[in-house]
Amino acid sequence: MDDLKNKIKSLKEEAFSDLNRVDQLSQLKELDRLRIKYMGRKGAIQSIMKGLKSVDPKDRPLIGRLVNSFKSEFGAKYEEKREELRQRAEQERLGKEWIDVTLPGVRQRSGKIHIIQQTLDEISSIFKGLGFSVADGPEIESDYYNFDALNIPKDHPARDMWDTFYIDDQTDRTVLRTHTSPVQIRTMERRQPPVRIIVPGRVYRNEAIDASHHAVFYQVEGLYVDNNVTFRDLKGVLSYFSRQMFGDNLLVRFRPSFFPFTEPSAEVDISCVMCSGKGCAVCKYTGWVEILGCGMVDPAVYRYVNYDPEIYSGYAFGLGVERIAMLRYQINDIRLFLDNDVRFLEQF
Ligand SMILES: [Zn+2]
């Protein structure tokens, strides 16, 4: 009986010194091994319990209490160790995630909407506010829509105004659209008046590229056809647009011009935004800068879309988006828009 008591006592000492030696994170497995060694089904405690049979029955309760206290003390120490190791692992993890909050931040570069798109959006929103809706059409166009239906027959000298990229050399029937006007025809073919649309889009001209000319640029076309649309309506809408775009104190003038698909036609000038009309290099010392072309839709155009010119009338206009942006932001070279130089683009 004393043998067994001593055995339990020394087992306890051994077990606790085993547990105390476990203090490394890597020893979680070792901790588990100790639990099995002492408490497992084939562990030290179980073998003592087996020896209980040979103990005098009156001494058994005492041995039982010793075994139970061993179990509970071992269990408590085991849990304490486990918790200690778990906390140490957590601290190590946090240590690795340590950040210096005094370091300067890493600047996130945000993307921007291209200056041309910004200008397009602004132009569109002014006309949308006047009841225009946005229409769209193909950039690769047939010469019927690009020229013929706009009253520009094959031999018409006006075709020289648009230096055209032809896609199909054999027949010359397919072109990169030279203006957004074909969308006028496509829209009128589909719908009866009233038609009140703007057409923002990219156009192409076979031009020598310099500071004021590019082979690729953007236009916004406008068209309004209904009963009794007059030149006065056109003047009102374009004067309003010019002032919204460039400022209230602007002078606007309409100068007679020629386009094959409008009659009468006009070009719209505004008082120079650089010198307020006093005269400078931008306005070539005239005090005026041209911003768009316009006119009353030529009745000949209605023939192509089966509108009755006795019933309907309308106006059309077209403006160059780069031109508007150049005047607005005092940019002196059209090539900058397509160069994709971030130093230029991030200014807007
Ligand atoms: Zn000027």
Describe the structure.
This protein has 348 residues and is α+β, with helices and mostly antiparallel strands. It has twelve helices and nine strands. It folds into two domains: 2-96, no CATH class; 115-345, 2-Layer Sandwich (BirA Bifunctional Protein, domain 2). Helices cover 41% and strands 19% of the residues. The strands form two sheets. The protein has a seven-stranded mixed β-sheet, with helices on both faces. The longest helix is centred in the N-terminal third of the chain and has 37 residues, at 60-96. The mean pLDDT is 89. The protein binds zinc ion (ZN). The site of zinc ion (ZN) has 7 residues, from loops.
Give the key terms.
348 residues; alpha+beta; BirA Bifunctional Protein, domain 2; 2 domains; 7-stranded mixed β-sheet; two-stranded antiparallel sheet; 9 strands; binds zinc ion
Largest sheet strand order = 1-4-5-9-8-7-6
| Helical coverage, percent range | 40-55%
Write the element-wise H/E pattern from the N-terminal end onward.
HHHHHEEHEHEEHEEEHEHHH
Q: What is the CATH topology classification name of the largest domain?
A: BirA Bifunctional Protein, domain 2
> Helix count?
12
CATH class bucket of the largest domain: Alpha Beta
Tell me the distance between the termini: 95 Å
Number of strands: 9
What hetero molecules are in the model? zinc ion
What are the segments in which pLDDT stays under 50 over at least 5 consecutive residues? none
Rg, Å, rounded: 44 Å
Largest sheet properties: 7 strands, mixed
How much is the average pLDDT?
Answer: 89
- State the CATH superfamily name of the largest domain: Bira Bifunctional Protein, Domain 2
Main structural class: alpha+beta
Share of residues in strands: 15-25%
CATH architecture of the largest domain: 2-Layer Sandwich
